[in-house]
Specification:
The complex is a heterodimer of chains A (138) and B (1131).
Chain A lengths: L5 E6 L6 E6 L2 H5 L8 E6 L5 H25 L12 E2 L4 E3 L4 H12 L12 H12 L3
Parallel strand pairs in A: 1-3, 2-5
Antiparallel strand pairs in A: 1-2, 4-5
Helix pairs in contact in A: 3-4
Chain B lengths: L9 H4 L4 E6 L7 H11 L9 E6 L28 H8 L3 E7 L7 H18 L6 E8 L10 H14 L6 E5 L4 H31 L8 H17 L3 H17 L7 H21 L3 H16 L8 H24 L10 H22 L38 H18 L2 H18 L3 H17 L3 H17 L3 H17 L3 H12 L7 H15 L12 H16 L4 E5 L7 E7 L3 E3 L4 E9 L5 E11 L4 E6 L16 E2 L3 E9 L9 E13 L3 E7 L4 H7 L26 E5 L5 E6 L4 E2 L4 E9 L5 E11 L7 H4 E4 L9 E8 L4 E10 L3 E11 L10 E10 L2 E8 L8 E3 L4 E9 L5 E10 L3 E3 L11 E3 L4 E10 L7 E2 L1 E9 L7 E6 L2 E5 L3 E6 L3 E3 L4 E9 L11 E5 L5 E3 L9 E3 L2 E2 L8 E10 L3 E4 L3 E5 L9 H11 L3 E5 L14
Parallel strand pairs in B: 1-2, 1-3, 3-4, 4-5, 6-15, 8-16, 18-25, 27-36, 38-47
Antiparallel strand pairs in B: 7-9, 9-13, 10-11, 10-12, 10-14, 14-15, 14-16, 17-19, 19-23, 20-22, 20-24, 21-23, 24-25, 26-28, 28-32, 29-31, 29-34, 30-32, 33-36, 34-35, 37-39, 39-44, 40-46, 41-44, 42-43, 45-47
Helix pairs in contact in B: 2-6, 6-7, 7-8, 8-9, 9-10, 9-11, 10-11, 11-12, 12-14, 14-15, 15-16, 16-17, 17-18, 18-19
Classes of the chains: A alpha/beta (138), B alpha+beta (1131).
């Protein structure tokens, strides 16, 4: 199942940039819908670095895919929503970290009847919440 | 510069092996010596001792011994690691010197030779003066040695030789060169290895003892040097753990050094060496995690120790080298069996190496901009011959503390910058490293990482102005990003690819990329899209497009020239495969039905959507349809006017987000009947054929748009689409359709009268009427019997005939051509020999040459078969009384009954009785009594035949066959002949037969001639005399005339005795004169057997015979008066 919805956020407050890839594995449990690793929502506070971040997030999907496929094979326990360290290089650490708040906001987006599953997320309230999380105001 | 400053020296990278010097071997002239040398030096496998052999000539000079230092107090080291030290121990200074000498124990010149040997040992010892190199002597002998202790002479002489050579007894070896050379050398080299280990151990301790004299203030370099030496010697000794310990101590001592700009290079170089040794050892000792941790620590520590700012590129080059080398070690360890992970494999290190190489390039670009002159004199002269690793050529051996000469320093830096700028191909370095990384990421299933690296590689190619390669790489990568809908990344790649295409004037790719850039998925700004659109239009108008932004000025001129030639080239039709790109034009096509009849128009709907922000004018739209045999192209929406105005067909002008639907209709080819046709492609021409046109080829299956609706097409229904416009997103493509045969207008009727009668020539009339609008040629009908499963031999039970002759199944009836509205009738017959149902299938085909089995009309017919009649037969006596048996030669009547069971009346044409041999007819000729008889259902026709049987049999006698020729009433067809076997009858023999001839009636008062024939027919009682007493019992009704006058033995009237001889007939005539009229009883004849007992007939039999054979009454007619009929009286 090549299924993962990634939300990438970047926090540029400190020098060490941190990219949080938010993996909604819940969708796997829903089963019927699978998306082909396309980005849902990407936000980066520093627009100059956005391209690099996108590449980073994209490449980290390799590991996600591998982990998901091994999960599918070995155990049926998909309650674990964290996938652990995804990608590590000298300057970036990438964790899929699960923010409950983010999850809630995302659920709201998906519940919008005018939202077509699979499309990128375009929502003001989602934007605001995410920006708040990234800047640490949440 | 062919080799980089930071390339590791080979002596560092090679595996340290104990060095063993062999002397006294003349390999050039002596075959035995050659063989010995080969046995030692060649075929060094893993299992052999870790030693390296070196052949020394007799006058070999070893590296000179430095004077021994007694105190380090005033010694100030000039550097950390001497450049020649490792090489010296690896290749020049042997741990063991082995002296070969040819001497047998029983050599006649033993004394002289032993002295010579001793002098050789002595000269080697002198050459090695001051060193603790071990010396061993090998006596090469002709004879194989005796077991130890048995050869007294050998033991004695060995001792003396050892003494004269001042040699330890354990260092004297014997090598018989006859057999088993390999085995001896193998054992010898293990012995040498022991000696070598001993030597290195000693050396290491020696170095260690020096260390005790050092102090921390001035001798910090020496701490590193000595620890490194110990580590290296331990490695030579193959003591991995000890070496590891020494090296890590050396590494930490190194980190303690004060690092300033002047010694940064040296420290980093040595740090790199020690780190290399450490990591390699740790992988060998199966400590991969430690190795990775050590490397992390190493890079973390030195990451920000850039050194002189002017030489930042040098730092990046060093970092790049560190990562690259670690990647190599890691990769080698994996090849030795270390498992790697998706998240931890050499690829990451190669990638980092590439990253640093890119940084190096950037730093070089920035720092070396101004450097265009190489300083004179060359400050870098003699750089490769410096005494210490990692020092500057212009100030060798200077202590770090000394402040450098600023002018010299400046010149040196300038020289380095010049070299960096002009002699290093940075892009190729980066590309090489990226290539290694890509291979690794591919191996460890990181496709996206690999793609990212490929894009980086393309960027490098772009910067090194290899636009063609860059473009190729980028176009290959586009697809994956497109698939996963990373539009931002896609846009980035598109931008670069467009620049490449522009710079290499690749018109094909330029148009393809532009079309994709204009699409909805790219994230270009409207202004950029406008610029791209205008450029495409320019290219299609054969003019040079405007340059892409951010293109280096110096390349512009060249690109313009390329474009000028490109657009002026003559055949300018660019085919664009739209299957794999998400362009600004999308298309879907579908058949409106799954099946089309051959005479029906095939309809294809083509939907085209443009999301180009500017109006797009196409010149032509066509659809190609593939069938198994050929493909054909159908133009859709052709403009009425000719090509001159083709470019402004309003039907093909698309505004932004406009969707149009076109319908293409065509008649299918008859050849495709029964086959599948499919939409091959949709071709959309952009631009005009005269100038330049791009032919957009869509697959029509919507594969290109599949990426937009992902895995769940159902969800697309939620997408809003403007009203009154075809809902493009929800058009489901249907790319294939089947052509099925058209309905035939050839009318087929079969007429026949049910049911068929058993054995009948049952006629079936097939009427064909042509209702088509044309002539039908070559019509054939196939008639076949169908088994219904349970009847296996249906072909035997029923047969089909066209004429009277039998045809093999299936029966083919050739009808030929049939004009429009004309009809033809063909008849065929069914003969069934068993009752039941028959299923007949009639198929009519138009057997033209081209298409077999088209136009097929098929009709199944079920025909019940019934019996037409039942035939039974009964036997009667001549008196018409039913009899159960017959008697020999006594006539009886066979009566056959034909009981008609057919529902329709039958006409009996003829009937015949065919009697068997034993049976003969009484009448000379048997006339059919049923001829031309019409029998309705339930009626019975009967006929009688009078027959006799010639002789008696034990078995019942078969009478013969009864044959009936019949036909259905009203049929003019063939007459059917049906035969049945007549029943059998039991026949008994009787020796006597009585017959009476009597007229049918008598007249009142007339005379009746009454003749009695007595026939004996029993041949077995031939010659026997029979005495019979016929008695006529008189009655009042007759006046019985006297008996035959011929009767000889008449004794009384009416009673007479007679004898009948075998095979003879006795005839008696009586004249009766009836006195009454009406049915008058006849006088009864009584035969009595005489008393003679040998007569083979009994009285009851005789009585029964008479009862059976003679009529009892006669009808007497009254006679008119006056005219009495003459009565014939027997004379």
């Amino acid at each position: 199942m090549t299924c993962s919805v990634s939300l990438a956020l970047s926090n540029v407050k400190s020098m060490s940039k941190c990219i949080v890839s938010y993996i909604l594995k819940l969708l796997i449990r829903l089963g019927c819908i699978s998306f082909q690793n396309s980005p849902k929502y990407i936000s980066c506070l520093n627009p100059e670095l956005e391209l690099q971040f996108q590449y980073k997030v994209h490449t980290s999907l390799d590991v996600v895919e591998e982990k998901l496929s091994s999960i599918g094979k070995t155990s049926s326990d998909v309650r674990e929503l964290y996938l652990g360290l995804l990608y590590s290089t000298e300057e970036h650490k990438m964790y899929p970290s699960m923010f409950r708040k983010l999850h809630t906001v995302y659920t709201d987006v998906v519940c919008n009847p005018f939202y077509i599953p699979g499309d990128p997320v375009v929502s003001k309230s989602f934007d605001t919440t995410v920006k708040n999380i990234m800047t640490g105001n949440a | 510069m062919s080799t980089d400053v930071f390339d590791f020296p080979p002596e560092l990278c090679s595996k340290p092996l104990a060095l063993i010097g062999l002397t006294g071997l003349d390999t050039l002239n002596n075959a035995v010596h050659r063989a010995i040398w080969d046995a030692f030096s060649s075929n060094r496998r893993q299992y052999r001792a870790p030693v390296k052999f070196k052949l020394l000539d007799p006058a070999h000079e070893f590296p000179p011994m430095k004077p021994k230092r007694t105190s380090y107090d005033w010694y100030i080291p000039k550097g950390i690691l001497k450049r020649n030290w490792m090489n010296k121990h690896l290749n020049e200074l042997p741990a063991v010197v082995v002296i070969f000498y040819e001497l047998d124990w029983d050599d006649p010149l033993w004394n002289e030779k032993s002295i010579e040997c001793a002098s050789r040992v002595q000269s080697v010892r002198v050459a090695l003066e001051g060193r603790s190199t071990r010396i061993a002597v090998i006596l090469v002998q002709q004879t194989a040695p005796l077991p130890t202790g048995e050869d007294m002479l050998a033991a004695e002489r060995a001792t003396t030789l050892c003494t004269s050579c001042e040699l330890n007894a354990k260092s004297l070896f014997v090598l018989p060169h006859g057999d088993h050379l390999q085995g001896y050398t193998h054992r010898l080299e293990n012995a040498f290895y022991d000696l070598a280990q001993n030597y290195y151990h000693h050396e290491a301790r020696n170095v260690k003892s020096h260390r005790d004299h050092l102090n921390k203030t001035t001798h910090q370099y020496l701490f590193v040097r000595h620890l490194f030496k110990m580590g290296f010697l331990n490695e030579l000794k193959q003591e991995g753990h000890a070496a590891h310990k020494n090296y890590s101590q050396a590494y930490s001592s190194l980190l303690d050094l004060r690092m300033v700009d002047t010694n940064a290079l040296e420290v980093k170089t040595v740090a790199g060496f020690i780190n290399y040794k450490l990591c390699k050892l740790m992988f060998q000792l199966s400590l991969p995690r430690d190795a990775i941790a050590q490397f992390r620590k190493h890079t973390e520590f030195f990451k920000n120790r850039i050194g002189p700012k002017e030489l930042t590129f040098e730092h990046h080059a060093w970092m790049s080298k560190q990562f690259c080398v670690f990647g190599d070690i890691f990769d080698e360890a994996i090849r030795q069996g270390l498992p790697a992970l998706q998240t931890q494999h050499p690829g990451f290190y190669y990638q980092q190496a590439a990253q640093h190489a890119a940084d190096r390039k950037e730093a070089c670009l920035e720092l070396c901009k101004a450097v265009n002159v190489y300083p004179e004199p060359d400050p870098l002269a003699g750089m490769n011959q410096l005494e210490f690793y990692g020092q500057r050529a212009w100030r060798p051996g200077k202590l770090s503390a000394e402040p450098p000469d600023p002018s010299k320093e400046k010149l040196g830096i300038q020289a380095l910058q010049y070299q960096e700028k002009h002699r290093v191909n940075h892009a190729m370095v980066v590309i090489g490293l990226l290539g290694s990384a890509i291979t690794q990421f591919k191996t460890y299933r990181c496709p996206r990482m690999r793609r990212h690296l490929v894009v980086q590689m393309a960027e490098e190619y772009y910067s090194s102005r290899d636009y063609g390669k860059a473009l190729t790489l980028l176009t290959h990568m586009l697809w994956d990003y497109r698939c996963e809908k990373w539009w931002c990344l896609l846009t980035n790649i598109l931008t670069l690819a467009l620049s490449c295409a522009y710079l290499s004037a690749n018109m094909q790719d330029y148009i393809v990329l532009s079309l994709e850039a204009l699409g909805i998925s790219s994230q270009f700004s409207p202004e950029q899209k406008t610029r791209i659109f205008n450029n495409v239009m320019k290219v299609l108008k054969k003019t040079v497009p405007d340059p892409e932004p951010d293109i280096p000025e110096e390349e512009l001129k060249r690109a313009r020239d390329l474009w000028t030639t490109a657009v002026s080239a003559d055949p300018l039709a660019v085919a664009v495969d739209m299957t794999n790109i998400t362009a600004c034009v999308e298309s879907k096509a579908r058949f409106t039905q799954l099946q089309y009849k051959a005479d029906q128009y095939v309809e294809i709907e083509v939907f085209i959507r443009s999301c180009c922000p500017h109006p797009l004018q196409f010149s032509r739209l066509s659809v190609t349809v593939n069938s198994p045999s050929y493909s054909s192209e159908f133009a859709v929406c052709e403009s009425n006017s000719k090509d001159a105005h083709a470019s402004d067909n309003p039907l093909l002008l698309f505004n932004c987000n406009e969707v149009r639907r076109y319908v293409c209709q065509f008649l299918p080819d008859v050849q495709d009947v029964g086959k599948e046709i499919q939409i091959g492609s949709i071709l959309l021409h952009l631009g005009s054929d005269q100038e330049c046109s791009a032919i957009l080829r869509f697959s029509g299956t919507g594969a290109e748009s599949a990426s937009s609706d992902g895995m769940c097409p159902e969800l697309q229904h939620f997408r809003q689409s403007p009203q009154n416009v075809p809902d493009f997103d929800n058009v489901r493509p249907l790319a294939t359709a089947e052509i099925v045969p058209q309905d035939s207008h050839l009318q087929l009727e079969i007429s026949h009268d049910l049911p068929a009668l058993l054995g009948e020539w049952y006629p079936m009339r097939m009427v064909l009427v042509n209702k088509e609008y044309h002539r039908i040629t070559g019509i054939t009908a196939h008639v076949n019997l169908q088994t219904n499963g349970d009847e296996s031999n249906i072909e035997q039970a029923s047969k089909l005939y066209v004429t009277a002759e039998l045809m093999p199944l299936p029966v083919i009836i050739y009808v030929g051509d049939l004009e429009q509205d004309s009809r033809v009738e063909k008849c065929f017959y069914l003969r069934a020999h068993r009752v039941g149902n028959r299923n007949i299938a009639v198929k009519v085909g138009q057997g033209t040459q081209r298409v077999e089995n088209s136009y097929v009309q098929e009709k199944p017919i079920s025909v019940p078969v019934v019996k037409p009649f039942d035939i039974t037969a009964k036997f009667f006596s001549l008196k018409f009384e039913p009899i159960g048996k017959a008697f020999v030669k006594e006539p009886f009547i066979v009566m056959s009954y034909v009981n008609c069971t057919s529902p329709c009346p039958l006409i009996i044409e003829d009937s015949a009785v065919e009697l068997s041999q034993q049976v003969s007819s009484v009448d000379a000729e048997i006339q059919s009594q049923l001829q031309s008889l019409r029998l309705k259902s339930g009626e019975i026709g009967a006929e009688a035949v009078c027959v006799t049987v010639g002789e008696a049999r034990d078995q019942p006698v078969a009478l013969g066959f009864y044959t009936l020729k019949w036909k259905r009433e009203g049929s003019e067809g063939l007459v059917t002949s049906s035969s049945v076997t007549l029943p059998t009858v039991r026949v008994e023999s009787i020796p006597l037969y009585v017959e009476m001839n009597l007229p049918a009636h008598g007249w009142h008062f007339g005379c009746i001639l009454y003749v009695l024939h007595n026939c004996a027919c029993c041949q077995s009682i031939n010659k026997m005399k029979h005495s019979l007493l016929p008695q006529l019992f008189g009655c009042a009704l007759y006046i019985i005339a006297r008996l035959s006058v011929l009767q000889e033995y008449a004794t009384r009237w009416c009673t007479l005795q007679l004898r009948i001889l075998p095979e003879s007939i006795h005839k008696m005539d009586y004249n009766l004169y009836p006195l009454l009229s009406g049915l008058v009883a006849l006088p009864r004849l009584r035969l009595t057997v005489s008393d003679r007992s040998d007569i083979p007939i009994r009285q009851p039999q005789l009585t029964e015979l008479l009862e059976r054979s003679l009529p009892s009454h006669v009808f007497v007619m009254p006679q008119g008066k006056g005219n009495p009929a003459a009565v014939k009286v027997a004379s």
